[in-house]
From TrEMBL:
It comes from Chitinophaga silvisoli. Residues 35-123 form the Cyclic nucleotide-binding domain. This is Crp/Fnr family transcriptional regulator. It comes from the Bacteria. Coiled coil: none annotated. The lineage of its organism: Bacteria, Pseudomonadati, Bacteroidota, Chitinophagia, Chitinophagales. Transmembrane segments: none annotated.
Length: 195
């Protein structure tokens, strides 16, 4: 693994939300560690208090809720160049309701949320990164997804998902896509046959 390439990708991703000062990036780099996460690893369990946020340099994660009867609802997938965490639990300093699993062999840049919060107090540009990140992913995208999931028929939800994320759809198993769309694998199989 090339640490320099991983860190360059990490800071490029951060800078897409807000351009960071050099001293901010140097301070931030001291907080991070690079980890390899094998496929099938449970990265965060439900009822665990999360500690870290991770930038995904390589790999794929699912973020899901599991009911007592075993039914699983995948809320979100996190592929390369995204940040994975149980964000609401981090902010509330509470146990996560969701589980995060590595679906593929992955490489992440991991950092402590507490240390990150400390840096936010000192670096205004990093605070603006965080505001822009939350606004884009936990307000705008979430709002759009909620509308689709509540009002569009299953066939349209599938079409939208594949159109918006064809590369991601190709990496997922049928049951993972079905769980994300809120339908059964059988329903999804029927939908695919009609398209």
């Amino acid at each position: 693994m090339n640490r320099e390439a991983v860190m360059n990708a990490f800071f490029t991703a951060l800078n897409t939300y807000y351009s960071l000062e050099k001293d901010t990036m140097l301070a931030f780099e001291k907080l991070v560690r690079i980890r390899e996460i094998p496929a099938g690893t449970n990265y965060l369990s439900a009822d665990e208090v999360p500690v870290f946020i991770s930038y995904i340099y390589k790999g794929l994660f699912s973020y899901y809720f599991q009911y007592e009867n075993g039914d699983t609802v995948i809320k979100k997938f996190f592929p390369e160049n995204t940040f994975v965490a149980s964000t609401s639990a981090l902010i509330m300093h509470d146990k996560s309701r969701y589980t995060i699993d590595a679906l593929e062999d992955s490489i992440v840049v991991e950092y402590s949320f507490a240390a990150f919060n400390h840096l936010l107090q000192k670096h205004h540009d990093l605070a603006l990164f965080w505001i822009n990140y939350l606004g884009k992913h936990w307000v705008v995208e979430k709002e759009h997804q909620e509308i689709e999931h509540k009002y569009l028929p299953a066939k349209e939800r599938y079409r939208h998902f594949v159109a918006a994320s064809p590369a991601l759809a190709a990496r997922l198993q049928l049951q993972q896509i079905a769980s994300f769309l809120g339908i059964t694998p059988t329903q999804l199989s029927r939908i695919r046959k009609t398209l």
